[in-house]
Amino acid sequence: MNSFSSLFKKEHMSELILAILLIIYLIMGSKTPQPIAVLVNSLIGKVILFFIVVYMFLYSNPILAVLFLFVVFDLISRSNYTIKTNTLKSYLPSEEKKSSQFTAFRQFPYTLEQEVVKKMAPIVQNGSTLSKPSYKPIMNNLYDASPINSSN
C-alpha cells in the first residue's frame, strides 16, 4: 500500500504519467507499427526490454514495474502478430494476380457442341415472326389443379 500511495506524491509525478501512458497502451490495443515490431521481435530487442524491466524492478515503483512487465509481454505478442500478418500478406497473391490466373483458366477451345449449335437453323432470325406450328399441344391430367389461364 505504501508503494501505491508514494506513486501519487508530487516528486513521483513522472512515474504517475508513465503509468497512465502504459495503462492507455494496454487498453487501446493498437497494432504495433512494422519498424518497431521488427526491432522488438529481434533477439537484441527482447534483451533490451528484459534489462529495462529489471531496471524498473530495481529502481522504480514496484507497481509501475509490474505494469511495465505486462506492457512488455503485450508489446512482444503484438509485434509477433504484426510480423506474422505482414509475412502472410507477402505470400498471398493480389486480386490482379488472381483474376489474371482465372482469366487464363476460362479460355476454352471451340467445341463440337458449339459448332453444331451454330450450324443449326435459328428459330427466330432477325426479329421475324414464325408461322404457326403444325401441331397442337395437349394438356396432361391436372389432378384437380386449376388451369393456368382460368379466371378463378
Task: Describe the fold and architecture.
It is a single chain. The protein has a domain at 2-86. Helices cover 62% and strands 0% of the residues. The protein has helices at 2-6, 13-28, 34-41, 43-59, 62-91, 95-105, 112-119.
Key attributes of the depicted protein:
152 residues; mainly alpha; single chain; 0% strand; 7 helices
Oligomer: single chain
Write down the overall mean pLDDT: 80
How far do the termini sit from each other? 88 Å
Indicate the proportion of strand residues.
Answer: under 5%
Count of DSSP-assigned helices: 7
For the biggest sheet, the summary is: none
Order of secondary-structure elements: HHHHHHH
Secondary-structure blueprint:
Elements lengths: L1 H5 L6 H16 L5 H8 L1 H17 L2 H30 L3 H11 L6 H8 L33
Helix pairs in contact: 2-5, 3-5, 4-5
